[in-house]
Design brief:
By secondary structure, this protein is of the alpha+beta class. Among the domains are: 2-15 and 658-799, no CATH class; 36-234, no CATH class. Helices cover 41% and strands 11% of the residues. The longest helix is centred in the last third of the chain and has 33 residues, at 638-670. The two termini are 22 Å apart. This is Transglutaminase-like domain-containing protein.
Length: 803
């Protein structure tokens, strides 16, 4: 032994003396190499990782009905490669087996009627799969998350999870790149991260992190370098404990930081924002199916407002008037329009002979992000807006290509004619030159059921108004039902003439179907029409404010108030709202009786101010009114600062804490204390007080790791004797006590043959070995520089490297 420490290396078992190049002999492995248990453990780890990560998809679909079939498909995908790995020569073909299992699993779950024996695909199976995939694509294109539960969506999710399992199994086991298997888990989380407001979520992310660590650990234990081995051959490498400590810290920090740091929940691209608009706000996009928004929105307040009316307004954002395309959407906005929003003149408007009602509304949109500005019908003036906004007088909408409604507070004045049955009964439809032809145009492919139904419902009614009321009453009759799900289940969700025909046949749908039906049937009868998209009258609140001598009453609209309704044009009166959707909004008074009445909740406010305000409300008054309407208060920043500080401290302390735990566990094992996780077992000496094989190996590993922490440059090509020489020079002594004992114990455990009950050359006692190790560790610390001691304590290099 003294020769070893003096630099004269002697051959050790496993050395090639002739070549003179030392090589590290492999520790003795007991047991016969069998792949039986290992392949199942590997398959189970991939299965757990995939299904755990799939929890991140909880916000994509309205419920978890897809989970059981997905479990079966993923299990089938992983079963076949595990079976092939039973024989090592067949292991390279595991990806082919995974592909086969994936296809058979999908066939068994979704297309048993088209398959041989219920699971063998046929050409008919391929056709059915393509049809289901096409249906899923349509649902995705016409819906925002959460999408409805439908077989097509289930098929897409199951196929995606099965493919992810195939990818992870191939990369981690066959290609022997377990770290790169994270790609498969990221693919699973990506849809939720991009399309849902909540993003991946804490549960989904933590499950993905735990699954990834599980795959790494199992591949390191059971399939190093892609070679599967049995549990009896498994040795602890130390990588798992470090990976688990680091991974757990990262997962914990990632779960805590989004709640503490504004950048995760605010800004231009927060998690789950769908790359458009701030997180945590409602979003009503008129360019997509309104049904998707209704299924997505919650009871979160989208906007609040105060008005000199005693009834809530319909808040318009945009209009749909071009019914010629397959998908109906707002017309493109002309950027050459006058950006000024003062003294607006809605055109065409009501005639001078018709009495009008002037309304003042102060609107706050703290939780609504849209390029379209919510406002009542017939706006005449808007003030207090931030950003650049354009007014379209023909459609009476306000839009911006550079600004958003998020966080806006503004004042709107509007002028609405006092409508009644008597006034409307004498009105006629617009002349051809009075309106843009787009408000009357119909495509050539209008289904016959639309015109036939319109004429049957109108019957012998002569006036446009009477015909409009007949259409509204027909759609609100008991023959039709309101449903968000039926159009999706029966395949006619969205817009277009084919959708409208199916709706009139099935007689079930939601606001976009009812409003479209009335608007198109009105055009069939010669009445110009359009569809308004925005918010139905919300609920009143207790907020009150005084402005310019008028009392303003508080109201609010939530995401569930998202709505669409038709507006029909009458000469001399302008655009008049109707409400054909049952169980939504309220029927206008001017469609119910002969009593002349002011506009009401379903159209415009019923109570007018004594006089139109003569001056624009001051900034102070407007701010006070909006605050009374429920503007958010300033957030206390102390929880934010505390959370960030705690998270940073935890991050900085992670290496030190993990290294301390590992050191104490190793020292306890060497001294003979109860231990866990060694995976090696002892040599039968635990009860005698003698150091066992595992104890000696752990002692050597801790000595080298501590030396690395204090600056030792570890070279895996050197023999233990050469390492001992270099560590001896670090200690500054020619014959340091205890080093020879630790080295000889390691060499004996790694290369020697153990007899029953004790080592052939005599094993040191646990206390003796532990005392020697602790002495060496203490001497390494005392001989180190202050910087080396600081680094060894707080940034130990052995935490990330395996000596």
């Amino acid at each position: 032994m003294s020769k070893l420490l003096s630099g004269r290396a002697t051959p050790e078992p496993g050395h090639d003396v002739g070549r003179g190049i030392p090589s590290e002999p492999a520790p003795k492995l007991l047991g016969r190499p069998q792949t039986g248990p290992a392949r199942w453990v590997l398959a189970a780890s991939v299965f757990a990782a995939v299904m755990g990560t799939s929890l991140s998809l909880r916000g994509l679909v309205v419920d978890f009905s897809w989970f059981p079939p997905a479990t079966l498909v993923v299990a089938c995908t992983l079963l076949f490669p595990a079976l092939l790995r039973r024989r090592l020569p067949l292991s390279p073909f595991a990806p082919v087996g995974a592909l086969l299992g994936w296809l058979l699993g999908l066939t068994l779950v979704f297309f048993p009627g088209t398959a041989l024996l219920g699971f063998v695909p046929t050409p008919a199976t391929v056709g059915a799969a393509l049809e289901l995939a096409s249906r899923a694509s349509t649902l995705i294109m016409t819906n925002n998350a959460p999408v409805p539960s439908a077989p097509a969506i289930f098929f897409l999710i199951c196929a995606g999870l099965g493919f992810a399992a195939l990818l992870i199994d191939t990369i981690a086991i066959t290609v022997a790149m377990p770290a790169a298997s994270a790609l498969g888990l990221v693919l699973i989380m990506l849809p939720a991260a991009l399309t849902t407001k909540a993003g991946v979520g804490t549960v989904g992310f933590m499950a993905a992190g735990a699954g990834y660590l599980l795959v790494l650990g199992c591949c390191n234990w059971y399939a190093p370098e892609g070679k599967i081995r049995s549990a009896s051959m498994v040795q602890p490498t130390g990588i798992l404990s470090r990976a688990m400590a680091l991974g757990a810290a990262v997962v914990l920090l990632t779960a805590l930081l989004p709640a503490a740091i504004p950048g995760f929940t605010q800004g231009s691209f927060p998690q789950g924002s769908r790359l458009n608009g701030p997180s945590g706000v409602s979003e009503l996009d008129p360019m997509i199916s309104l049904g998707a928004n209704l299924r997505q929105q919650s009871n979160e307040v989208a906007l609040t407002y105060l008005s000199n009316s005693t009834s809530a307004h319909y808040m318009r954002l945009s209009t749909l008037e071009d019914f010629t395309g397959k998908i109906w959407q707002p017309a493109s906005f002309d950027n050459s329009l006058d950006p000024g929003l003062g003294q607006l003149s809605p055109a065409p408007a009501a005639g001078a002979s018709v009495p009008s009602l002037d309304t003042l509304t102060v609107i706050s949109t703290p939780n609504l992000a849209s390029e379209w500005l919510p406002a009542p019908l017939s706006v005449t003036d808007v003030s207090g807006l931030d950003g650049s906004w354009l007014w379209d007088p023909e459609r009476q909408t306000i839009r911006s290509s550079t600004s958003s409604t998020a966080g806006q507070q503004y004042t709107v004045r509007s002028k609405m004619p006092r409508l009644s049955r008597a006034v409307l009964s004498t009105a006629s439809a617009a002349s051809g030159a009075e309106l843009d032809p787009v408000f009357s145009a119909l495509p050539a492919n209008v289904p016959p059921i639309v015109g036939t139904t319109a004429r049957e419902v109108a019957g012998d009614q002569q006036s446009p108004y009477a015909q409009a009321v007949a259409l509204q009453d027909y759609l609100r009759s008991g023959a039709f039902t309101y449903s968000l799900d039926t159009p999706v289940q029966d395949g006619y969700d969205g817009s277009g003439m084919d959708v409208l025909a199916k709706f009139l046949d099935v007689k079930s749908g939601y606001c976009i179907h009812f409003s479209a039906a009335m608007a198109v049937m009105a055009r069939e009868l010669g009445i110009p029409s359009r569809i308004a998209v925005g918010y139905a009258p919300g609920a009143s609140t207790s907020a009150r404010a005084e402005l310019d001598g008028q009392t303003l009453n508080g109201f609010q609209a939530t995401g569930r108030d998202a709505h669409a309704w038709p507006e029909l044009y009458f000469q001399g009166l302008g655009w008049v709202p109707f409400e054909p959707t049952p169980a939504r909004g309220s029927v206008p008074d001017y469609t119910q009786d002969d009593t002349a009445a002011a506009p009401q909740a379903s159209a415009e406010p019923t109570v007018a101010a004594s006089a139109t305000p003569t001056s624009t409300p001051s900034a102070t008054a407007t701010a006070a009114a909006v605050a009374a309407g429920g503007a958010s208060s300033t957030t206390n920043r102390w929880p934010l600062v505390s959370g960030v500080s705690a998270a940073l401290l935890l991050l900085l302390a992670t290496p030190a804490l993990a290294r301390m735990v590992v050191r104490r566990r190793r020292l306890g094992q060497v001294r003979g204390s109860p231990r866990w996780g060694s995976g090696l077992g002892g040599s039968g000496l635990a009860d005698t007080g003698l150091a066992g094989t595992a104890d000696a190996l752990v002692a050597w590993r801790e000595l080298v790791a501590t030396a690395v922490d204090y600056g030792y440059d570890y070279d895996p090509a050197l023999t233990p004797a050469r390492h001992a020489e270099k560590i001896s020079r670090m200690l500054g002594r020619s014959d340091p006590g205890g080093l020879a004992l630790v080295l000889s114990s390691y060499e004996q455990a790694a290369y020697g043959k153990a007899e029953s009950g004790k080592n052939s050359n005599g094993a040191p006692g646990n206390d003796e070995l532990a005392d020697a190790l602790e002495t060496l560790l203490a001497r390494l610390k005392t001989t180190a520089t202050p910087w080396q001691r600081f680094r060894a304590t707080f940034l130990p290099p052995s935490f990330l490297t395996r000596p």
